[in-house]
Write a structure and sequence with these properties.
It contains three helices and five strands. The protein has helices spanning 18-35, 61-66, 118-132; strands at 3-12, 44-51, 74-78, 89-98, 108-110.
């Protein structure tokens, strides 16, 4: 049965430059969609992006357009300026239509953003190992 699920993700961007921001955000979105078996824009309800205040080179939403998802509603916002927070981070919250159970949803943390949720990053790595060894009961 198809239901609505929320998927989280984050990536630490290499540099606050337009091309780096777009490429890294596109990589995050593509990985979130792939790991959650999203096959097209009809399965995406919306994506909310936030960026740490030190990122000002562009809008993460432009990366969604770059991936050909022009009809997906997207919004961008700035994260709270918390002292000592991980710098140069783009986060996303995507709402999707899926057959995945809540426990099967793959939240994606890339590069330095793994430090934000090491528990979820470890689970994702374990799931990848299981898939590589032919287990079919993995999201």
């Amino acid at each position: 049965m198809t239901t609505v699920r929320a998927v989280r993700g984050a990536i630490q961007v290499e540099h606050d430059e337009p091309e780096a921001l777009l490429a890294d955000t596109a990589a995050l979105v593509a990985e979130v969609l792939s790991r959650n078996r999203v096959r097209g824009s009809d399965e995406i309800i919306s994506i909310l992006f936030t960026m740490t205040p030190d990122l000002r080179a562009g809008f993460p939403a432009a990366a969604v357009r770059r991936l050909g998802l022009a009809d997906v509603p997207v919004m961008c916002a700035t994260e709270l300026a918390v002292p000592d927070a991980l710098p140069r981070v783009v986060r996303l919250l995507a709402h999707i239509h899926t057959d995945l159970a809540q426990s099967e949803v793959a939240h994606v943390y890339l590069r330095g953003a793994v430090a934000l949720r090491p528990d979820l990053a470890a689970r994702a790595a374990d799931d990848e190992r299981k898939r590589a060894h032919g287990h079919r009961d993995v999201a």
